[in-house]
Amino acid sequence: MPSIIDLTAAEPINVLAPGETLVAEGASGGTLYVLISGTLSVERDGVKLATLTQPGTLIGEMSVLLGTPASANVRADSEARVRIIADAAKVLATDAHLATKVAATLASRLDATSALLVALSAEHTGKPHEEGLLSRIFHALTVTDDATVARSDLFGSDAWPRAM
After folding, report:
1. Which one of 3, 72, 97, 118 is at 20 to 30 Å from 61 when CA atoms are compared?
2. Residue 53: pLDDT band with limits 50, 70, 90
3. What pLDDT shows up at residue 144?
């Protein structure tokens, strides 16, 4: 199967200057971006989550697929080039190859996250907070069908971090 860069080759490219915001936390979504080159930082609720440098990295997929506002800020650390897939939900509904590539990317991320959580759980086995946050995260990963998990399901209505 072609790469996500190949699958989106006909889409326009946006060039970001260092410090420029690609996605603002809380902004309405609907656009999917594919990193072509450069470095992007991802920050959520004031916490830096990732530095993106790998060509083909997807940005905005959670907002597109969940129909929710953007969950993080994404800014250019260096000049960055991204492909723009506007009205991405409509594009994904009509392009099976692209939709499959996006699904495979998300499945891979979930697999890596699950493996990390298993390792963390093994490190904390028998400790007093064992049934706390890790247990709630594992539960969130097993939700099926049309059920959804909100942040409040994992963290309650209090601000994170909260005492266990």
Report:
1. 118
2. very high
3. 59
Tokens of 162: 């909260």
Alpha-carbon distance of 141 to 137, in angstroms, equals 6
- Distance (Å, whole) CA 160 – CA 153: 12
Nearest C-alpha neighbor of 124 from the set 133, 112, 115 = 133
**Is the per-residue pLDDT at 63 higher than 50?**
yes
**DSSP letter assigned to residue 158:** S
Interval 99-108: pLDDT, tens: 999 999 888 8
Whose tokens are 């499959």? That residue is 100
Are 12 and 45 spatial neighbours (Cβ–Cβ below 8 Å)?
no
Q: How far apart are CA 116 and CA 56, in angstroms?
A: 23
161 preceded by a cis bond (ω within 30 of 0)? yes
29: alpha, beta or left, given left = phi > 0 and alpha = psi -120 to 50? Answer: beta
